[in-house]
Structure formats: C-alpha cells, structure tokens
C-alpha cells in the first residue's frame, strides 16, 4: 500500500494553517502544521515531507531563510511559498534556490492545488 504524502504547512497565522491543512486533507494528503520555521526544524529534524507550503514573512526565521537552512543541510523537497507581501526580489531568490511556486495571499484553492499537484508529480510550474 502506498504511503500517503505528507504536506508540511509552515505559517505563523493560525487561520491560514488551519485552512491550508483542511484543503490538503480534502485532497487525501496528510497535513502537518507548524507555526514557524523554528517549530518545523525542531519537530521534523529528519522527517522530510513530500512538499512544504510556507509563508515568506514569519518571525525569527523567514520562509526564504528556512529554505536556505534546509538546502544547506541537504534537505531538498518542493516548497510552495505564499506571501501577503509579494516582492520580485524575494520571488527571484526563492525560485532560483529551487522553490516550486510563489503565490500571493490570498490565493485561490485552485492555484494552491495546481502547484501542490505539480510539485508532488515532480513537474515544473
């Protein structure tokens, strides 16, 4: 029996975490929510998800800093970034480093699903 893909959701906004987790579960995936990059690094040190959906603007460790730390430690998996404050410079930085998608907030469920399904299928956006 195939293992259910785990999707990590890293966002400091509890409402966003809950709605993304609900969306992910409705698609048949397992959702694991983390309130910060630090929380993810502490509670999932070697347990890599099939994909991560992460906010860019978070306290202590931003989403792009989390991405850099994961890459530096050899942990590579698709990351979908979401932000309420889109910036072309941040978009270029995270996409160049291997992010799968860079979405503004709010994003439609269809946009998120499209990025997630492409990421899990190993397709480029």
UniProtKB/TrEMBL annotation:
GO terms for biological process: phosphorelay signal transduction system. It comes from the Bacteria. This is Response regulator receiver domain-containing protein. InterPro entries: Bact_response_regulator, CheY-like_superfamily, Sig_transdc_resp-reg_receiver. PROSITE patterns: RESPONSE_REGULATORY. The modification 4-aspartylphosphate is found at residue 55. Keywords: Phosphoprotein. Pfam families: Response_reg. It comes from Bradyrhizobium sacchari. Residues 6-120 form the Response regulatory domain.
């Amino acid at each position: 029996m195939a293992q259910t893909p785990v999707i990590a959701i890293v966002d400091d906004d509890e409402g966003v975490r809950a709605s993304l987790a609900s969306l992910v579960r409705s698609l048949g995936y397992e959702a694991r929510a983390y309130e910060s990059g630090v929380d993810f690094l502490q509670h999932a040190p070697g347990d890599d998800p099939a994909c991560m959906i992460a906010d860019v603007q978070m306290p202590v460790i931003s989403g792009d800093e989390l991405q850099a730390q994961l890459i530096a430690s050899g942990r590579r998996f698709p990351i979908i970034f979401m932000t309420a404050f889109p910036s072309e410079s941040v978009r270029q930085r995270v996409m160049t480093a291997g992010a799968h998608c860079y979405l503004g907030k709010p994003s439609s469920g269809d946009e998120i699903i499209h990025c997630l399904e492409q990421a899990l299928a190993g397709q480029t956006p």
